[in-house]
Structures are given as structure tokens and as C-alpha cells.
Automatic annotation (TrEMBL), chains A, B:
GO terms for cellular component: cytosol. This is Protein NBP35. It comes from the Eukaryota. Pfam families: ParA.
Amino acid sequence: MDTDICGPSIPKMLGVETETIHVSAGGWSPAWAMDNLAVMSIQFMLPGRDEAIIWRGAKKNGLIKQFLKDVEWGDLDVLLVDTPPGTGDEHLSVNAFLKESGIDGAVMVTTPQEVALLDVRKEIDFCRKAGIRVLGLVENMSAFVCPKCDHASEIFKATTGGGRALAAEMGIPFLGSVPLDPRIGMACDYGESFFDSFPDSPACTALKGVVKGLAEQMGLERIGEE
Amino acid sequence: MDTDICGPSIPKMLGVETETIHVSAGGWSPAWAMDNLAVMSIQFMLPGRDEAIIWRGAKKNGLIKQFLKDVEWGDLDVLLVDTPPGTGDEHLSVNAFLKESGIDGAVMVTTPQEVALLDVRKEIDFCRKAGIRVLGLVENMSAFVCPKCDHASEIFKATTGGGRALAAEMGIPFLGSVPLDPRIGMACDYGESFFDSFPDSPACTALKGVVKGLAEQMGLERIGEE
């Protein structure tokens, strides 16, 4: 469920950008990116790919409610809610609308530099105040290994210790560091699976470690093994 | 003026993170990052660096109005408004509050990959609908040159032509490509001037080119020369 209303990128990254929503008696049908992966995003409702979604918070909240109430999700193992950065309307609404059913927890994603950690500390504080468990922290865009000479560069330098140090400081599980690999961005642009295309790459191994760690935190070891 | 209410990073990047706001009869005093650079951000009002700002859009709009009405900006050459990503409350409010005084224009910043351009196309559409001139587009995080072997890697690959192609497609000025340089992130983390520390680096040359092009678009050639 893509709650980034003004900048929906999930459909493109999952290769379902051209899908539209079908409405039936049962509700809105999500788009299927894989046999076991349904997606809902405002992107499916736009007349054109380039169209701006000029919406204030109140209108965003209404759509998020509809995504939860009117979409025929079926019998889900997991509902993954992708939010934009921040601690604003989208975050407050998701938390309010799911209060009764309960939220298993939140996953934090950062890049290594302190300017990014600064925002993530605020997100963690939000979770604490909202009573949402932090399942773990992932560090994305870690060291880059030159394809020509194998030299590793810290492009977004962890001047204060990066994700690992922040997780320790905050007492939350550290789920792993995903190195910068240009093929991840390309897979996103082409809507292809990085896991299928480059299963043995260090970035894929790191991402699988993140999924495994997360599944353990959620008591869903079965998913981590798949 | 930092309108990223939930994720204020400008004070840290400009080295004024520990400043607080002074209130006088004339209004709120901004923090001074340099002799000729005043800054206003919600960060100056927070009890702690890690404190979440859990605000819905309406509350954000109120603060943006205060930043414009109650801050003693003095006699400004330029008011630069930094917004978070998207086309939501912050963007609508800045545009509404400055409607009468007029807005010279907007600067778009993207990274090279299509998933990023997708959002920027929406921002450009927002500007068109809001009647805001687009002064130009900057491509950030372009090729990375390995410090060991000089090999250039496109980490965020421009699978659809990147910023330059988007600017041409949209008929807006292209202000330049800023290469990925780890020292930029470090300068931001340390609150130091990348311009002062690495004036001859390719990234600094590119950034100066962006400023010059922007000054030309705004009819402020004087600033481009400084």
C-alpha cells in the first residue's frame, strides 16, 4: 500500500505502472505485481503519468482511509505500508486507522550520513510516542565498490557511525547495510526484480538478510526462508 | 526559509544547528549562517534535536505563515524557500501566501534515474498549474569518479536520459549536473562550506555553474559573479 500520494513510485518499481483500478461490487481491485503481491497506489487513478497530485493533508487522509476500507485486499499475510518521509498526515492517518487492528511495527530506512540519521531519529521518536514498535533499522546506500578496481568508497560517509551506531544508540535491531549497486536503481526503473536478476550480488545478499531479520522480528520465519 | 517541518536539515547543513530563535518587538530573529545569509527553520524551536514534529498539514501551514509574517527578514535580495518533496500543503501554502508579492520561480532538483524524474515531472506540472515559472532543473548525484582509478560510474543510472533530457522534453532551462562527491555529504554533516573547502573540485565548479545559470534566469547576474 503506497501512501506517498504526491510522489507514488511503487507501481513503476514493481512493473505495474500502466495498471488501472477495477471497481467491482466487492470493492477496488488492487494491481497484482506477482502472484502473491497486490499493490494499491494513487498512480493507478491518474489520467497521466506526469499529472501532479496537488492535495492537502485532509484529502490525502481520505484516500488512505479508502485504501484500507474499500480495497479488496483478500486474505493477506502481511500488509506493508510504504510512507513518504516525515511524521505528518500520512503517518498519523495510517496509525489512527489501524489502531484497532493493531500494527506489528515499523521499519526504518536510512542512508549513512548524519543529515539522514537526523530525520530517522525523529521518525523513531514518532513511533515511540505513537506506541508503534520499531522492528528494525536498515542502512541503504552504504559503500560503493568500483566495478573497475574494486576500491570501496563511502559516498554517503557515516560521519557519526551510520545506521549501525544509530540502532545501538536507540536500542533497536539493526537489520543490515545494503551497498550502493547501480543495478538496483536500474531494476527499479525497468520494473524488474533485482532479486531474480542478480541473486548472488552482495546487495541481494544484504537485502535477503534484511528480510530474514525482519521476519524473525515479526515471528514470520516462514517468509524469511522463502 | 526551511519549510520541511517534519525533517528540517538546513540548520545542520549550514552549521547553525544549535541556534535558537530570539523574539523581539520587531519579530522573530532568524539565525545567521553567514553575514549575508539568514536562516529560519522549525529546528530552532525544538527542545531536542531528536524530537519528532508530529504535525498535520494545517499546523504546518500556520508555521509557514508565521515564517513569512513574523520573521524579521530585513531587506532581502532573495528569499529562498526550501520545500520537502511533493506537491502538498507546504507547496500550496507558500504559493498562496506569496501570491500577492509574487514568486520569481521554482528550481527543480532531481537525480538521474527515471524513478526520480517521475516525481519531478509532477512538480513541474504543479508549477504550471500554479502559474509558477520554472527557472531551471539541476541534476544532482550524477556520475561518481573512483578516487583510486578515476573510473566514472553512473550509480543512479539515467535510464531515460536524466535531467538534461527531462529539461529538453519539458522546455525548461537545464542548469547543470552535479557529480557525486563524498565531500559534499561530509561538508553537510559538519556544517561547513563545500565551496570554501574544495573550490576547485568538479562538483564545486558544477554548483557554481548552477548558481550562475540561475542568477541569469532571475536577472541577478551580480550574484552569479560573487
